[in-house]
Amino acid sequence: MDDKQILSLLQSLTLEEKAALCSGADNWTTKPNWDKDIPVLRMADGPHGVRLEDKPNEKITGHHSLPSTCFPPECALACSFSPALAARVGSAIASECRHYDIGMILGPGVNIKRSPLGGRNFEYYSEDPLLAGEMAAGFIKGVQSRGVATSLKHFAVNNQETKRMSIDAVVDDRALFDIYLKPFEIAVKKAQPATVMCSYNRIGGTYASENRRLLTDVLRLRFGFTGAVISDWGAVNHRPSGVNAGLDLEMPSSGGANDYAIVQAVKNGDLSEDALNTACWNLLKLIFTYAETDPISPIPQCDFDAHHALAVEALEKSAVLLKNNGMLPLPKEESIAIIGEMAVHPRYQGGGSSIINPKNLVGFVEAMQNAGMPFTYAPGHTGEHTTPHLLEQAVKTAAAAKNVVLFLGLPDSFECEGFDRDHLAIPAAQIELLNSVAAVNPNVCVVLCCGAPVETPWLDNANALLCLYLGGEGLGEAALNLLFGNANPSGKLPESWPLTLQHTPSYHNFPSGPNEVSYNESIFVGYRYYNTAKVPVRFAFGHGLSYTSYAYSRLTLRNNSLASEEPLTLTFTLTNTGTLAGDEIAQVYLRRKNSARFQPLHELKAFTRQTLAPGQSQNITLQIPYQSLGYFNPATKTHVVEQGEYEIQVGPSSHNLPLTMAFTAAGTTLAPGTSFAAGGFYSKLKDNSFPADEFDKLYSGPRTSNSKLPQKGEYTLTTTADQLTGSFWGRRMLYLIRRVSCAYIRFSTNPKANHRAGIAMANDLPFKNIMQQTNGIVNPKALQHLLAMCNGKPGFWRLVAAMLKRPPYARKRYLPQTKKENPYANQSRRKKNS
Question: Which whole-number Å values give the CA distances from 352 to 86, 435, 732, in the listed order?
Answer without folding.
Answer: 21, 32, 27
